[in-house]
Amino acid sequence: MNNLGNVLLSAHVAFATLIVACFFMTLVLDDDELHRYAMNKAIRVSVIITILTLMGYSLYKLVSGSGVISINVIFFGIEGLSLLTLLLYYLELKGFSLSFKENKKMGEFLTTVSIIISILTTISMLFEFKLFANPTGIIRYDVLILLINFLVLPLEVPFFPNRNKILSRDAYKKEHKELKKTFNIFTVIYIIFMLLGIIYIIYSRFN
């Protein structure tokens, strides 16, 4: 069984090497601007998908109580990144593009939901609610939700319009100032919640 496992692992390494070699060959070709644009867009999307997949698997292992990751998973990640990039690259050249449609209301809604989730999960972590306890895992469920929320939050940016293109310089400065003000308000509220929670925990443990 051990010999069979070594043979399968060697075959997996050879397959991954072949895929990566094809990926590198396509990546370093000195093509025109259209091909470079398609490759850059394909890499951006495939990197996001691959990293989210690997992070999801890693978080699953932590929740299940295991801190060991198989070397095959690393090869699967490399193969997935290479194959997905090549697939998206050729689809982009054929006119099939994967992109988000700008929707400011949707972006604001998702951002608000993410902020609420961050505050609620932080409160749960500070007070250690039993609802989110995970006796068999390495991390609690509220920690899992918070980490997933932080991973998804940057992906909400494409829903917002590109202000650099549609606004004048003065209008852009005004929008940037309002956005910064809103962000600062949410940051202050978040910090206040954390400080109150820490103070409560310290007070409850010494009384």
Number of strands: 0
Average of pLDDT? 79
- The helix content is over 70%
In DSSP terms (H or I, runs of 4 or more residues), the helix count works out at: 7
Q: How would you describe the overall organization of this protein?
A:
76% of the residues lie in helices and 0% in strands. It is mainly alpha-helical and 207 residues long. Helix 2 (33-64) runs antiparallel to helix 3 (71-93), helix 2 runs antiparallel to helix 5 and helix 4 (104-127) runs parallel beside helix 7. The model has no long low-confidence stretch (mean pLDDT 79).
SSE inventory with pairings:
Elements: H1 2-27, H2 33-64, H3 71-93, H4 104-127, H5 141-152, H6 163-166, H7 169-205
Task: Give short descriptive properties of this protein.
single chain, 207 residues, mainly alpha, flat
